[in-house]
Sequence to fold (613 residues):
Amino acid sequence: MNKIFTLSPRLANQIAAGEVVERPASVIKELVENSLDAGATQLDVEVEQGGVKLIRVRDNGHGISRDDLPLALSRHATSKIINLDDLEAVATLGFRGEALASISSVARLRLTSNTGDEESGWCVEAEGRDMEARLSPAGHPQGTSVEVRDLFFNTPARRKFLRTERTEYGRVEDVLKRLALSRFAQGFSLKNNGRVVHSWRPATTQPEQERRVAQICGPAFMENAVHVDIDRAGLRLWGWVALPTFSRSQADLQHFYVNGRAIRDKLVSHAIRQAYQDVLYHGRHPAFVLYLELDPGNVDVNVHPTKHEVRFRDSRLVHDFLFRSLHKALADVRPGNEPSAQDEIGAEADTASELSAQQYSPTEQPGLSFASQSSEPSGVAERAPSWSPTYTSAGSATSNRPSLGTSTPVMPPASDDESVPPLGYAVAQLKGIYILAENAEGMVVVDMHAAHERITYERMKEQQQAQKIQSQPLLVPQAMAVSEKEADYADEFADIFVNLGFELERAGPESLLIRQLPVILNRANVEQLVRDVLSDLIEYGSSQRIQQNINEILGTMACHGSVRANRRLNIAEMNALLRDMEATERSGQCNHGRPTWTQMSLAELDKLFMRGQ
Ligand SMILES: Nc1ncnc2c1ncn2[C@@H]1O[C@H](COP(=O)(O)OP(=O)(O)OP(=O)(O)O)[C@@H](O)[C@H]1O
Ligand SMILES: [Mg+2]
Fold:
């Protein structure tokens, strides 16, 4: 056996650095977070050779006093928390007192700061094995600059894991973009090898913020985004979600912040994915920039060394709030309806308890309101409405809200003629596939089948929900083996299953009997479905799966029951379809997530013909 020695401070810091400092981008994240915690309003970042040679972050924050400077570089020293209570309600990005000590153990770090109380500033560097701090006077305006040179110069194993300058620079850029999206009130700039690459000015108004989002996420995202701002029961969700038709092949445009901290969280992704189900093309990923704000005491940020994960005290409440808010926002996207979910779920959920996941029964699809739908005799779900000349519109649908083209949902074109409905009036049918219509902005083109499919589908869902799900008893109940925990959940959430047409009976500590199931579901897959629902309930406290399965079947029926291409429609029928689209939730996309209509403004048409040029 070897003797036991205490690690030198430098080695201890280098071990800690293993968790925090992976590459130049992680250094930048730590330094910029410190500047934000210091109340800086302007943050300037500079890198050379992808950040491996040099990283410099300069801020105009409150600075560090001369006496505190040596402490700033030592481990377990922080000005942000003092006791456990502080940690449990921490509102700053930093709290471990670890970042600067770690960075200075694997690079040459120089910190210069001025609190504004003294004539000039002071500079500190950590030296040698014991990392004692060396202080010297240095000119600096109020604020702090941290210079990090030769990252991993003394840890060759780490250096080997670095990629090319270009890749490292790309990650630096990504990290800074993520940070710049987290705080709009601050200005940020990024210089690479002596050249200013990005400069984002402080953005206080919504249009300014949208400009920054467009600069960072691309103008196409902003053009296809819905602004959301919902405040309920101590939770606020705001930001922008892309329309389902602007989906991505990868989950690469997803920014989620909890109290200003970028996080990746399973619960959050699950809630968002669920909100998009039914409108997103299969295998595509939604795009969003979203901010969740809640009492810092209700979220634990001390879960992961890099602070990328959080734990919510009431995770079911958060899951349900996210799902409902976004589901509502997306349901509201239809022609003539301003795509924004400004605080409208209020009518359905006013208190925390109403939002509680336990009380939430998936039969009442949250966030849905069918006020604008006509209550046509609720035929059985199986009987898909068929297109016939007697088909009439669901409502008068004269909306005086600004009409929105799918191409510019956030900034709607001003309509001078308010009496024309958003999708206008049908002019003709093209090739038996498209409806051409004229509205206040110009020309509207509608994919007849896609639009009708969505309308039929929404109507079938509505009917199916209004009627309660028809269920049938099994002649021979189906036994299934489960874990004890799953069986307990089946007991606890028996109501949810009953509402969805299931009857489950506990047949033993680890077995369930399926006695009854919804008529519409295929018996063959039922066991797997019940299993999946139970695992959702255990993980997230709620489940949409049964409803999703039913919806899928309704979707197929809607597709078959919808007006086919090459069906001749007269003008009245076409107008009826347009009015129905305006009154139907999610009618901007068909059941498969494809767009149902598009707008060509007069200006766009003029451009095509070079009129007025
Ligand atoms: N840019 C800055 N402006 C003012 N003070 C700073 C700045 N950077 C660091 N400090 C001070 O130095 C201390 C140590 O910073 P460090 O990043 O190592 O730890 P922390 O931010 O407290 O916690 P964490 O390790 O979680 O980041 C901070 O608590 C803060 O008081
Ligand atoms: Mg810090």
User: Anything to note?
Assistant: The chain has a mean pLDDT of 82.
